[in-house]
Design a protein that fits this description.
Pfam families: FCD, GntR. Helix content is about 75%, strand content about 5%. By secondary structure, it is mainly alpha-helical. It is elongated and about 55 Å long.
Length: about 210
């Protein structure tokens, strides 16, 4: 019985979390136990357990009157996370070249770009692939603490990325630019490769996320 209860709670958690991340429940959406049990066709017990997990994760917030909403993405959130990304990824990208591993990482990143291209028709799946591409860049650090920083901000990264696309960031153009970035990496052309990363993912990405 316990295993079944845990399994149902985990299923409820994954379903609600996915609906938050893929913007089925956009930032600011008001949620109720009744709505979630109806959406998931589950009883209140596993849904209640899932809500507690999502509250602990910060994806669902509760006000003084115990009204539940999907956590908003403020302009401050977006600016802070993009600042964090640029600080970490610019250093990581430079290290890829100074450590002499540009060719190796060109192929590693290219694999992620291929997945982005395959997911181009699905904004959520494309954003998941894009996030994995960025994780590949910071993997050069081989630093578990930095990985945890990204993991702790993953839900915001995924939701912000989709907001960027909805506000005008062009998936096809971004994919093509990343293909060019990979080719410049393979030629050990740091300046041009980084300029593409900065333009698409730290400038355009942030501007469109802010709307």
């Amino acid at each position: 019985m316990t295993e079944k209860h845990i399994s149902l709670a985990d299923r409820a958690y994954e379903a609600i979390r996915t609906n938050i991340l893929n913007l089925t429940y956009p930032p600011g959406t008001q949620l109720t136990e009744a709505k979630l049990t109806a959406d998931l066709n589950m009883s209140r017990s596993p849904v209640r357990a899932a809500i507690k997990m999502l509250q602990a994760e910060g994806l669902i917030v509760t006000d003084y009157y115990k009204s539940m909403t999907v956590k908003e993405l403020t302009d401050k959130d977006i600016r802070e996370i993009y600042q964090l990304r640029e600080l970490l990824e610019s250093s990581a990208f430079q290290l890829i070249f100074t450590s002499g591993r540009w060719e190796e990482y060109s192929y590693r990143i290219e694999e992620k770009v291929v997945r982005m291209c395959a997911a181009a028709s699905d904004i959520y799946q494309w954003e998941l692939a894009d996030t994995n591409m960025h994780l590949e860049i910071i993997s050069i650090f081989d630093n578990e603490r930095i990985n945890r920083i990204y993991e702790n901000n993953m839900s915001e990264l995924i939701r912000m990325g989709q907001c960027s696309v909805k506000n005008g960031m062009d998936i096809q153009e971004t994919n093509e630019n990343l293909k060019k970035m990979v080719l410049h990496m393979r030629e050990n052309n740091y300046e041009t490769a980084y300029a593409i990363l900065k333009s698409d993912h730290f400038t355009t990405g942030k501007e469109t996320a802010l709307g």
